[in-house]
Amino acid sequence: MRISKRFELIGHRGAMAHAPENTLVSFQRAIDMGATMVELDVHLTRDGELVVIHDHELARTTTGSGLVEDMTLAEIRRFDAGIGIHADFRGQKVPTLQEVLEITSHHVALNIEIKAGRQTYPKIIDKLLDIIYQYDARNEIVISSFHRAYLREIRQEDAGIEVALLYSEAVPGILDEAIQEGWQGLHPWYKLVDRELLNEAHRLGLSVRAWTVNQLPDMVSLIRLGTDGICTNFPDILKSVVTELGID
Ligand code: G3P
Ligand code: CA
Questions:
Q1: Pocket probe mutation, ligand 1, options 166, 169, 187, 238, max atoms within 8 Å of Cβ
Q2: 8-245 has which CATH code?
Q3: Ligand 1 first shell, C-beta below 6 A
Q4: Of 12, 54, 150, which is best to mutate to test ligand 1, by the most ligand atoms within 8 angstroms of its C-beta?
């Protein structure tokens, strides 16, 4: 399955309005609700494992505390990541990227966002590529980051994997930069998406996927403009919009 020019219904951290973010149950829920792509965030543990968690520290989303980069995978797995939504979710662990790929691989596409710890992780790209190769998942993954250096390293290591820049404020000259850097996509905050950006990006062969869109009218407007994907906490609502507009 190659990520195509189809519209991507992207579950943000799974289906985070319905299940604890970045947990296996959240990813499964997004898929069940009709997501064609699942978005997640990765950090590197002290013993070099890729774990799926948004923050570089544990306190907000687990029963633990401390920095991911200071802890081993085994230490992190002692904590409960199933907090915050409903007691039924208790017992979820911080997943490894491999565990998520067991669910998504050859089934739905994956948007892997590479985060940073105290600083960007020097060895994260090698580990990430190893896992992608292990699951034969090169063609069903887009790697995104706010950190340009990660995208550049991936392009140097394997130009066949899609990369996209995340950004939250207007970036002058971003289309020229995208072509120069060899990015295949742009992942802007949704209020930065307009017809001009989409027209120019599409003329250059770039995909534009917007985040994080949780209101139905915004979903409708962005789809009508021609946005290539929408990342949402509510894959169920986006699915109903996509069905109503007849683009699924
Ligand atoms: O995919 C876009 C979005 O995930 C970026 O922001 O903070 O939710 O990781 P954040
Ligand atoms: Ca993210």
A1: 166
A2: 3.20.20.190
A3: 12, 39, 41, 54, 113, 166, 187, 211-212, 231
A4: 12
Q: Which residues of the chain have pLDDT under 50?
A: 1-2
Would you list the domain boundaries of the chain?
A: 8-245
Task: Report yes or no: 40 and 68 within 8 Å, Cβ to Cβ.
Answer: no
**pLDDT of amino acid 5:** 66
pTM: predicted TM-score of the whole model, two decimal places: 0.97
C-alpha 192/C-alpha 169 separation (Å) is: 7
**Cα dihedral across residues 220, 223, 225, 230: positive or negative:** positive
- Please report the atom of ligand 1 found closest to the CA of residue 209: 1
Per-residue model confidence as pLDDT tens digits over 129-168:
999 999 999 999 999 999 999 999 999 999 999 999 999 9
DSSP H or E stretch at residue 143: strand 141-145
